[in-house]
Give the backbone structure.
Amino acid sequence: MATLNLLYKQEYAINEHIKIQIPTVGEVLDNEDDYYTMVTMLTAMPVDMMVQLDDIGVDFTAVNEYELFLILFNALKDKDTSLIFGELDLKPFRSAVNPQNNTIVLRDKETGVVIDRGIQGQIASVLRKIHNLKRNNRKPANQEAREYMLQRAREKMRRRSKRVNDSQLEELIVAMVNTEQFHYGFEGTRELSIYQFNESVRQVIKKIDYDNRMHGVYAGTVNAKELSQDDLNWLTHK
């Protein structure tokens, strides 16, 4: 995929039929739970859904990212996906076989629009870019490790289920508005795209880390010779 330049975009075109929306912070806030649930479904790797897959009798090590997408698609298309796919309606899509390579695709018979493994991969990549998400490629080395990972994941899910689910985005907004490096108020922040906001959060964190590092250098508690070029440059996202 070409370099994703999303800073001033409201959408990113995968092809002439499929476009990924880049909503504003306000739009996400107003639909936060559903929006992030859909983002998770569209970017998840099997290891991220190991418990859910195990509950339906599927070994998470035996399926790939695209197969997981096909499993989740029926639940996804029942949601209002307009904040992600705009006017594209997922409801008419059905599983079909691509006769050219005998693979499963999703196809809208009326419009001819197809979602195949390549398209799904691009959708996931764009959403990961928008939300600073990393592709989770962890795999257990053996059956014992697999069982251990499942056990730990179940424990984490149980702990999370007992917590009150406050808005994480709202907490981030409050934190950023009260940070000297961020120059938007509450209303101004609502108008930013979610990509602009996420990138700002990442950059502010990097700047604060850089400032703390430099204070350590000046105080003599941090050895400047041990710092990398990335440590000495807060302007990049790397």
